[in-house]
Amino acid sequence: AGLGLWRGNAWAQGATARQATGVLSGTDFDLSLGETLVDFTGAPRIAHTVNGSLPAPILRWKEGDTVTLRAAHRLRDDYASIHWHGILLPANMDGVPGLSFSGIAPGETYVYRFRVKQGGTYWYHSHSAFQEQLGLYGALIIEPREPEPFRYDREHVVLLSDWTDED
Fold it and tell me: Which residue in 45, 120, 125, 157 is a FRET match for 53, CA 20 to 30 A apart?
């Protein structure tokens, strides 16, 4: 995409999807795990998205806050999940089906609720079927409790992935 090889933008298609690719901040979140039509290669395919966005919206938290995330399963898959990669939290909030919880059944909503114990840049993704590879992943930024000892004019989030039309 950086070399200008993509025919169009690399976001999930549609006005709703482009709006959803922003940042969600705070302590209370509604995340809809759904399907969105994308076209990266000239062949439209179904991607798994969060709130219609691929990648999923950036989640921005603050160290020390308690966050509540309601993940609603709207996919055709049997089960869904969200794993908070690298985050220190109770086992039943970790989002790994068969290990830390049963998974989110179709049509159900799982409520993740935990205290944020560290700052840094992380990511979140599904641990079910091939949902991550189909687009269910996003960046997670946790602002430290104390201000950084340096200044900057702007920040950029770089999240790398790949895509294949093969099954």
Answer: 120
